[in-house]
Design brief:
The complex is a heterodimer of chains A (450) and B (483). With 450 residues, chain A is an alpha/beta fold. Chain A is built from 13 helices and 15 strands. In chain A, the strands form 4 sheets. A 7-stranded mixed sheet of chain A has the order 2-8-7-6-5-3-4, with helices on both faces. A 4-stranded antiparallel sheet of chain A has the order 11-12-15-14, covered by helices on one side. In chain A, strands 1-13 form a two-stranded parallel ribbon. In chain A, strand 5, helix 9 (221-230) and strand 6 (234-239) form a beta-alpha-beta unit. In chain B, strand 4 (202-208), helix 8 and strand 5 (233-237) form a beta-alpha-beta unit. A 7-stranded mixed sheet of chain B has the order 1-7-6-5-4-2-3, with helices on both faces. A 4-stranded antiparallel sheet of chain B has the order 10-11-13-12, covered by helices on one side. Classes of the chains: A alpha/beta (450), B alpha/beta (483).
Chain lengths: 450, 483
């Protein structure tokens, strides 16, 4: 029996101890009419050899491509040590660290993670992670409304990832929170701080500020943050963690800094893997720590005054506060954070800076080469980090399909997300791309357009 | 020692960072970072050694027995991990075209179909990223259903007092008022209290069955009738599905919506607290409201079902399709077990629990519901022991760590005083259970002879009892370099 160690002898002895004749008898409190017969619709079991064959065949069917899609999930090199350590059984198969004395490995690692993320975002404190970037933003919106008290309105520019906006809407609408979307400048691809005074007249709890935004364009974060604060609202930064090695962190935006920083942690050592598991990060100013959802680890001492780590501020959480908790969140993304912490340690501050710089340089180089192709031009004039929107002379879907024939996933067609932008393609080239890869892409696009 | 304390200025891993680009950055000066990033400057070997050593300070299923009630800590087969980490699966971008992911999508589609078959539900969506998110999605669908019928008066969700904390927290997060109902002395939900609580304001009832008290809710059919009669819906919290997998289908019990914790029943790793994964299943009438995306099969091809196909969907609750890699691991596990492996899970989980209950009872421990069969878990109450000796359930739990066992779930469910919720899971052998009973007996003796030693446990862990009060009062949530 797969993964069940019992011998016939064991079963007989155990039943005798219980005082039952058969295993069946142990289910005698379940009403008979509820017991179902043989499961149909579930195939017979496979051996490990057979399932290996099946999974390898299916993997082969999916193949490997040169990927130039970003749009919230980024291909970066992942050092071999990251997942070799992360999948050690002691991390992989351990439980949530409620028994602190038997979980010091996970707890210390999470404390180190919190330290790294607080510094990266320029904030005072970080929690131990959320499900993903989109839900982290939704939780930040809920947090802002809890702390604001009088307004239940959140401003989200349309330069924020369209799927994030959908997720935020789905989650916060349950609590009758209004989401107001702000338009952007279609020339520069940014939110214009000076336009906000005219388009926003009502009180709001928070302004969401993406950096870089969905188009890869860098926003004028200082002016936006100061404007939100001048309206007595919070500023929520939604940021790319790799970019923070080069860019001003949210905690230093404007004169007072943003109040909450969230984002998708995937670029920090997590494989693309069809969208998950990733992890969301969330960091904030000290004043807001008791409004923060999710697990938080604190450093303390034991009976011998020796340093140790525990889950703290648990009075915010569902297992203590039940219906009065800050969120229903229970699980975080512990194993993903394990990988991210090891990743950040391996690359270090200089490594992360170089990864960011090389990703920026590769994207600039790719854009420069593509713009030489007749009819291809940058959609927006704003400065970019490692992603760019390009306007093509023909519908994007057809071109992407041709590139795919050459083993290139050429980017994301924005038709479904921003139909008003016409034939727009979002491309990204991280540090994983070589000069030859960029030339290869440019040549393929040129051919597809000719 | 923290990783930061291993750091030396200027130490770098040259193999882990690209060369500085030759071209000039085009990031405007005013947007550039001025403060340093506090990441450690350590060698690759230092990093590997540091985190390997940290891992060794953890308990884990791979190293210890976890009789952790309501958490279903079973063995996580290695093949599930290694096959889910084949390069093609890892490198696939979530927004890559469907035709470049047909192998992956086939696995997801078959996982949906299998989960439908074992739960008796009409549809399954794989998007929820954890049990609590599955609950949120389930309750959102309940709301969407009522509102789609023009019924806006349903403002209450009923939750038994033995429920997981996530149930009431979810109902509130979804904008509902929580009505708690009591449990009777047999461990069943008080039917009269339920009848008195329901009405036109009832949106639904959230129920875990078998309950967190480790017993099967015998009146489930009647409860289903009571709630449905007033127009409410039934939510099944699948936290304890391991106890009845392949034996009883939530759909047959009358549930309208369920979530399934894959990190419990389907053996995906707990990972030190996530990632979880909790697909939701729905009855026919909730199909239009399911969260997207869902995988559809058309001919021999698979594609995503999106808002275009399901205009009444409650929407997207994750950036892509939930924790895809976790879903792959569950799929592999299901294929390894197959149709006959499914009901063996619940049979042997139940056998292990009832055996352990019988043996602990014989050893002198008080069982909270001695007249009931255990499901896959059961409760020991330490109330008498505490009254006589002052030794608490938590003291015993910590002493178990010294004996090399993870502690059972303590102080949950809250209605049983000094409780230990014990769930052995089907993957443990009789020898392990016997050794655990032996250690429990030893602790009983220690309580008698050296109660203070037990109260001071643990004694052999990397740290002794930690000061939680200090942690919350003198918040230290991030390391700071000494000035």
């Amino acid at each position: 029996m797969p993964f069940i160690p019992h011998t016939q002898e064991d079963i007989a002895e155990m039943l005798a101890s219980i005082g039952a004749k058969t295993i069946e008898e142990l289910f005698d409190e379940i009403p008979k009419d509820l017991i179902s017969g043989e499961l149909t619709g579930v195939p017979p079991g496979l051996s490990e050899m057979e399932i290996t064959r099946l999974m390898m065949e299916r993997a082969g069917q999916d193949g490997l491509y040169q990927n130039f899609i970003g749009a919230g999930a980024y291909e970066h090199h992942i050092p071999a040590a990251v997942w070799q350590i992360t999948t050690r059984g002691e991390f992989y198969s351990s439980y949530t660290p409620y028994q602190a004395e038997a979980s010091q490995g996970t707890l210390q690692l999470l404390y180190e993670y919190q330290t790294m993320m607080a510094s990266l975002t320029g904030m005072d404190v970080s929690n131990a992670s959320m499900y993903d970037g989109a839900t982290a933003l939704a939780e930040a919106a809920l947090m802002a409304v809890r702390s604001h008290k009088t307004s239940r309105r959140i401003l989200i520019p349309q330069t924020v990832h369209p799927i994030y906006r959908q997720v935020v809407r789905a989650i916060v609408s349950n609590q009758k929170i209004e989401v107001v979307e702000l338009p952007f400048c279609t020339d520069c691809g940014q939110i214009l701080p000076e336009s906000l005074a005219n388009s926003v007249h009502e009180e709001f709890a928070a302004l969401v500020i993406p950096q870089p935004n969905f188009f890869g364009v860098l926003e004028q974060v200082d002016a936006l943050t100061d404007w939100a604060h001048s309206k007595n609202a919070l500023a929520i930064g939604v940021v790319n963690p790799t970019a923070l090695a080069l860019l001003t962190p949210p905690g230093e935006w404007g004169s007072k800094g943003a109040d909450i920083a969230v984002g998708e942690g995937q670029p920090l050592g997590i494989p693309l893997s069809s969208g998950g598991p990733y992890f969301g990060f969330m960091a904030c100013k000290n004043e807001l720590v008791r409004q923060m959802p999710g697990r938080i680890i604190g450093r303390t001492t034991d009976l011998d005054n020796k340093e140790g780590f525990v889950l703290t501020l648990q009075a915010r959480e569902q297992h203590i506060r039940r219906s009065k908790a800050t969120s229903n969140i229970c699980t975080n993304q512990g194993l993903m954070v394990t990988a991210a912490t090891i990743y950040m340690s391996l690359v270090g501050p200089e490594g992360l800076r170089r990864i960011a710089a090389q990703s920026h340089a590769n994207t600039l180089e790719l854009v420069e080469q593509l713009e030489k192709i007749n009819g291809v031009k940058r959609t927006f004039t704003g400065p970019i980090f490692h992603e760019a929107a390009l306007t093509l002379p023909v519908p994007v879907a057809k071109i992407l399909s041709q590139l795919k024939q050459k083993g290139i996933l050429g980017g994301l067609d924005l038709q479904g997300y921003y139909p008003e932008l016409g034939n727009t393609l979002l491309v990204c080239a991280t540090e994983t791309k070589t000069a030859a890869d960029l030339q290869n892409y440019a040549a393929a696009l040129k051919q597809a357009l000719s | 020692m923290l990783i930061f304390e291993h750091s030396r200025p200027g130490r770098r891993n040259y193999s882990q960072s690209p060369a500085t680009p030759a071209s000039k950055s085009k990031i405007p000066q005013n947007l550039l970072r001025k403060s340093p990033v506090l990441l450690p400057e350590v060698s690759e070997m230092d990093t590997v050694r540091h985190y390997t050593r940290l891992s060794q300070k953890n308990f884990s299923i791979d190293t210890e027995f976890y009789p952790l009630g309501s958490c279903t800590m079973k063995y996580n087969p290695r093949a599930c991990n290694s096959l889910a980490m084949l390069p093609q699966y890892l490198s696939r971008h979530p927004l890559a075209p469907e035709d470049t992911g047909q192998g992956f999508l086939a696995c997801m589609y078959e996982l949906q179909e299998t989960l439908k078959a074992v739960t008796g539900m009409a549809g399954v969506s794989l998007t929820p990223m954890a049990g609590a998110q599955g609950e949120l999605i389930g309750v959102m669908m309940i709301r969407a259903y009522h509102e789609s019928r023009g019924d806006f008066a349903r403002t209450e969700i009923i939750v038994p007092d033995a429920a997981h904390g996530t149930n009431p927290a979810t109902a509130v997060m979804c904008g509902f008022k929580v009505v708690e109902i009591a449990t009777d002395k047999e461990g069943n939900v008080d039917l009269d209290a339920l009848k008195a609580a329901v009405g036109p304001q009832t949106a639904g009832l959230m129920l875990t069955n078998p309950s967190t008290l480790g017993v099967f809710e015998k009146n489930v059919a009647e409860m289903s009738r009571v709630v449905h009669q007033v127009g409410g819906l039934l939510y099944y919290d699948g936290a304890n599905l391991n106890a009845v997998l392949g034996k009883v289908k939530p759909g047959d019990m009358g549930f309208d919506v369920i979530h399934i914790n894959l990190h419990k029943t389907f053996s995906t790793p707990h990972g030190g607290g996530g990632p979880g994964s909790a697909p939701v299943g729905v009855a026919e009438r909730l199909l239009p409201f399911m969260p997207i995306p869902i995988v559809a099969k058309e001919g021999n091809a698979y594609r995503w079902i999106t808002e275009k196909d399901k205009p009444q969907s409650i929407g997207r609750l994750s950036a892509h399709m939930g924790n895809a890699g976790v879903l792959l691991r569950a799929y592999i596990y299901i294929r390894l077990l197959g149709m006959h492996g499914m009901h063996r899970i619940s049979e042997f989980a139940t056998l292990n629990a009832n055996y352990l209950m019988a043996e602990l009872s014989k050893a002198g421990f008080e069982i909270a519901y001695p007249t009931r069969r255990a499901s896959h878990e059961f409760i020991v109450t330490m109330k008498d022991i505490k009254d006589k000796t002052g030794v608490t359930a938590m003291n015993l739990a910590k002493r178990l760590l010294d004996k090399g066992y993870h502690a059972p779930t303590t102080y949950f469910p809250m209605l049983v005083p000094e409780c230990l919720l014990i769930e052995p899971a089907e993957t443990e052998s009789k020898e392990t259970l016997d050794a655990f009973v032996k250690s429990m007996k030893e602790i009983l003796q220690e309580i008698e002879l050296q109660p203070d030693m037990v109260k001071g446990a643990p004694h052999t862990m990397p740290v002794r009892k930690l000061d939680d009060v200090k942690a919350a009062r003198e918040l230290d949530l991030a390391w700071k370099p000494s000035a």
